[in-house]
Hints:
- The chain has helices at residues 4-27, 31-37, 40-43, 45-52, 57-63, 71-88, 95-116, 125-150, 154-176, 185-210, 218-235, and strands at 243-244, 247-248.
- 73% of the residues lie in helices and 2% in strands.
- The longest helix has 26 residues, at 125-150.
- With 251 residues, the chain is an all-alpha fold.
- Strands 1-2 form a two-stranded antiparallel sheet.
Amino acid sequence: MVDKTKLVSYVYSAQFIFAVVYMNFARFNNRLFMHMTKSIFILLLIPLDLSLWDWNKRQAQRITASFPASFRQYLAFGELCSAIGDQFMIYPNQFFGLFFGASFFGLAHVFYILAYFPRCSISNKLKWITSSIIGFTVVLYFYAGLFNWVKNDILIALGLFGYLSLEMFTIVVFVCTELSPEHCRKCHFVGLIGTLFFFVSDIILFYHLFRPGYWPLENVSVMITYYLGQFLIAFSSRQLTCSHGGKKVAI
């Protein structure tokens, strides 16, 4: 029988190694090896989501009505789209790289929204309104800092605002998700933190592209916050099995 605990440890180690290797290749702009290593960290999240992070089927069956068991599959599709987007974003200064990269990352956010939106409480209007106002105020703040640098290209200006708004909506959906007692709230909160890291990563990236030199250690900061954000979002998939009847499962 396969020891999943050891496999998970091997996956974590491989993710760390490939993340470090990619960032070193990126320093020297070695495009071939960047293509070979950048997406591996994200792709390795998929088996963690779907299999290696244990799935308690009996528990899942009891709460399927309130939280679709397919949400792990949606997360996996989001990670796959992100991995494809990574390949295009190796060329962020070229229009095709930015356009297709942002498109695939936008699709990834759509899958993350699909994963959690069914459990959002539409009736809790105060939470929706409050989180939306705060979130989109943040979007407008950072977008205002970029507007003078993108306003001459209407496609980029509109696309940038649309993408940041979609990303913020993902965060709002995580905030407004209602959890039953069977769900591990800590795991869900970890996923929420992941969406924030993902947002920060993209803000640093866009400032790096349109206002270079604005952030210190831009390339490293982008990748660390991006990888961390994606990992934490994926980790939220454990909320169905991590906590049942007070029983905790080791990471």
